[in-house]
Structures are given as structure tokens and as C-alpha cells.
Amino acid sequence: MEPHFLGPGAKVDRPRPQRSGRVLVVDASPLSLIALAGVLDAEGFVCTCARNPAAALKAAQQETLDLVVCDVGDDAPAALQLITDIRTMETCRDLPAVLIAESQWAGLEKKSQPLGAVHCLFKPLDPSSLLAVVDQAMWMPHLVNTHRRRGSRPTRSGWVNL
């Protein structure tokens, strides 16, 4: 069988990912920021990107968010403070967060426990691990009321509405 090549401008129907939600991605490194947002965007999430805490806070004030993904970089205490500051906003009180850190920050998961609803991933990241944690974080039991208020529902197969 001969290979079939599509010409320029040809459209290929690809199934759209079933995931949905608005994610704030915070990372000081432009390459890392694009990579993280790209993985999430390819799965159907709408991403807002910020390279510093001030931009992240401004985005949190202007957007309705479902999750924050924050690369810790060299300053874990600043990342934890950013999550605390975002959660002081009325619309972000129960906002879950995923922190991404280098191995030098081992123990970060224990430091973040008082914040609640914070997950930690350590580099190097596997995109499927990131997506699994994001899925879990966005539909945690304590967020059910938040999702009900917004009228959003899980879109993954196997979920049952009660």
C-alpha cells in the first residue's frame, strides 16, 4: 500500500481531548513555562501563564481558575507564599495547587501540608504523571461544592452524577 501524504492546508479530524478546566501555570523559566502549558493545553485545558508572583496574582484576580501549577524554582517559600496569597481571594479559597520542584526541595510536600490541597511533583517530570496529578487535584472531594456552584462537572468517562 502506498503512503498517502496530505497537502498543505489539508485538515485532519483528530479527536479533541475530553479534559477541561482553567489552569494558572507559574514558572520563571520561559522554556519550562511553555512546556508545562503545552502539555496541559494539548489535553484540553485552558492555560494562563505567569512568569512571576505579581503576574500570577493579577491573573488569579482576573480569571476563574480551577488549578494552579507552580514551578518552585530556587525559592520554595516564595511559591508557598504565592499559593497562600492566591487563596486569600474569595474565588480562589479552595483552589488546588500542584508544586513542581527539583530534588533539592525534598520534604516540600510536608511543608505544604498546612496549606491543604497541594500536590508536589519532583523533576524530571513525566507528562502522564503531571496529567494524573492534575486530574486528581481538580476533582478532589473538597472541591465538589465549588464545582457545583460553577455548574461544572467531571467530563471523564466512568463518572456518575448523583
Automatic annotation (TrEMBL):
Keywords: Phosphoprotein. The modification 4-aspartylphosphate is found at residue 71. GO terms for biological process: phosphorelay signal transduction system. It comes from the Bacteria. InterPro entries: Bact_response_regulator, CheY-like_superfamily, Sig_transdc_resp-reg_receiver. The keyword Disulfide bond does not apply. Residues 22-138 form the Response regulatory domain. It holds the Pfam family Response_reg. SMART domains: REC. PANTHER family: RESPONSE REGULATORY DOMAIN-CONTAINING PROTEIN (PTHR44591:SF3), STRESS RESPONSE REGULATOR PROTEIN 1 (PTHR44591). This is Response regulator PleD. It comes from Roseimaritima ulvae.
